[in-house]
Design a protein that fits this description.
The structure holds two protein chains of two kinds.
Chain A (H helix, E strand, L loop, with lengths): L4 H23 L18 E3 L7 E3 H4 L4 E6 L4 H13 L7 E6 L3 H11 L5 E5 L3 H5 L7 E5 L5 E6 L4 H18 L2
Parallel strand pairs in A: 3-4, 4-5
Antiparallel strand pairs in A: 1-2, 3-6, 6-7
Chain B lengths: L3 H4 L1 H13 L13 H12 L17 H15 L4 H12 L14 H30 L17
Classes of the chains: A alpha/beta, B mainly alpha.
Chain lengths: 181, 155
C-alpha cells in the first residue's frame, strides 16, 4: 500500500468512529441510568396515602397482581406530557396504576390532580423521597412495571409516549398475562 | 488590595464573604463530630456521581436528590457502615453509574485497558518509524535532497 494513503486511512477510520458514536447516541440515551432493579423484587415499601395520610399502602397490598408504579409530582413538567395518555389509557390496561407522589406538598399534588385529572387507582405520597431512593428514582416521571410475583419487569425513565406504551409496556403485559394463568 | 482596607474594609469583607459563599451552595450543614469524619465523608462524596447533573459529583451537586443522598451517606456512616457497604447500597439502587471509578468487569474492560492498547500501538508505530529512519541514515541515503522514487515525501 502506498504509504501516502496511511494518514488518509487513519482519518477515515476516525470519521467512521465518529459516525458510529453519533448513531449509537441516537439510539441509546447516555444519560439514562440503567436500573439494577429489573428482574429483582421491587423494594418492600409502605407509604401514607395521599388522600388519607393516616392509612398506609404498600407492596403488601399489591402482592399477587401486576401493577404499574408511576412516579409523579406537581412540580414535574414532563409529567404533564404523559398525563393525557395516562388519563386515556390507564383504565384500559387492566392493571392498577399506582401513583407515587414524589417529594411533593400534598396540597399541591391534590390541586394538580383536581386540575388535570386523576388517572391513578391509588396514590401514595413519598414526601421525603426516602422510598424513591430504594427504587432508584432520580427524577420524575419514571414508571415501573411490577409483575404478580412482585418482580420489577421494566422501568421507563421519562414520560410515557404512545410509542413506548404500544411497543414496550403492552407487549410485556400480554407476556405476563400469558405466563400467569 | 491593601489600599482598600482603610477606606472600605466592610466592602472588602462583603466581597470576600460573597466569593467564598458561592461554591458553598452544595454544602449542607451536617453535624460532623470531627475533622476525620468530615474528610471521610467528602472523600466518599467525591467518588460518587450525582444522578441528576451527571457531570457533577455528589459532593459538588446542589440537586435535591444529591442532598438527599448526601444525608443518606452521612447517616450510614454514622451507623458504622464501611465505604464499600455505602457504595454497595448506592449501586444496588442506581447501578455502577453512581461510581466515578467503574469496577473492572467484562463491559468496562475496554475502558480500563483501551488507553494502554492505544499506547502500545503508538509505541510500535514510533519504534518502526525510528528504526526505518536509522536504517536509511546508515546506508547513507540522503533523505532530504533526493525525492523518494515513489514520489513519497512523507518518509
Amino acid at each position: 500500500m502506498n504509504a501516502r494513503l496511511v494518514p488518509l486511512a487513519g482519518f477515515l477510520l476516525l470519521v467512521a468512529l465518529l459516525g458510529f458514536g453519533i448513531s449509537w447516541m441516537r439510539e441509546n440515551r447516555m444519560s439514562e441510568v440503567p436500573s439494577p432493579l429489573i428482574g429483582k423484587p421491587a423494594p418492600a415499601f409502605a407509604l401514607p396515602l395521599l388522600a388519607d395520610p393516616e392509612r398506609t399502602f404498600g407492596a403488601a397490598d399489591l402482592r399477587g397482581k401486576p401493577y404499574l408504579l408511576n412516579v409523579f409530582a406537581s412540580w414535574c413538567f414532563a409529567c404533564l406530557d404523559e398525563h393525557p395518555l395516562l388519563m386515556a389509557e390507564a383504565k384500559k390496561l387492566g392493571i392498577p396504576l399506582v401513583g407515587f407522589n414524589y417529594k411533593d406538598e400534598p396540597d399541591d399534588a391534590k390541586r394538580w390532580l383536581a386540575r388535570f385529572g386523576d388517572p391513578y387507582t391509588t396514590i401514595v405520597a413519598d414526601r421525603d423521597g426516602r422510598v424513591a431512593i430504594d427504587f432508584g428514582v432520580y427524577g420524575a416521571p419514571e414508571t415501573f412495571l411490577v409483575d404478580a410475583q412482585g418482580v420489577v419487569r421494566y422501568k421507563r425513565i421519562g414520560a410515557i409516549t404512545p410509542i413506548v406504551l404500544a411497543t414496550e409496556i403492552k407487549p410485556r403485559l400480554a407476556e405476563m398475562a400469558k405466563g400467569t394463568p | 488590595m491593601t489600599m482598600f482596607i482603610p477606606r472600605a474594609p466592610r466592602l472588602l469583607a462583603a466581597v470576600l464573604a460573597l466569593s467564598t459563599a458561592l461554591p458553598a451552595a452544595a454544602i449542607d450543614v451536617l453535624p460532623f463530630k470531627d475533622r476525620a469524619e468530615e474528610q471521610r465523608f467528602q472523600n466518599l462524596a467525591r467518588q460518587l456521581r450525582c444522578l441528576v447533573c451527571q457531570n457533577e459529583s455528589l459532593a459538588d451537586s446542589s440537586a435535591d436528590l444529591a442532598k438527599d443522598l448526601r444525608a443518606e451517606v452521612f447517616e450510614q456512616m454514622r451507623q458504622g457502615k464501611t465505604d464499600a457497604e455505602i457504595k454497595r447500597y448506592l449501586t444496588d439502587r442506581y447501578s455502577d453509574f453512581v461510581l466515578y471509578n467503574p469496577p473492572v468487569r467484562g463491559g468496562t474492560l475496554l475502558l480500563w485497558v483501551g488507553p494502554f492498547i492505544v499506547l502500545v500501538i503508538g509505541g510500535i508505530a514510533v519504534a518502526t518509524i525510528v528504526r526505518r529512519r536509522a536504517a536509511v541514515a546508515r546506508t547513507g541515503a540522503p533523505t532530504t535532497t533526493t525525492p523518494d522514487p515513489a514520489g513519497d515525501d512523507w518518509t
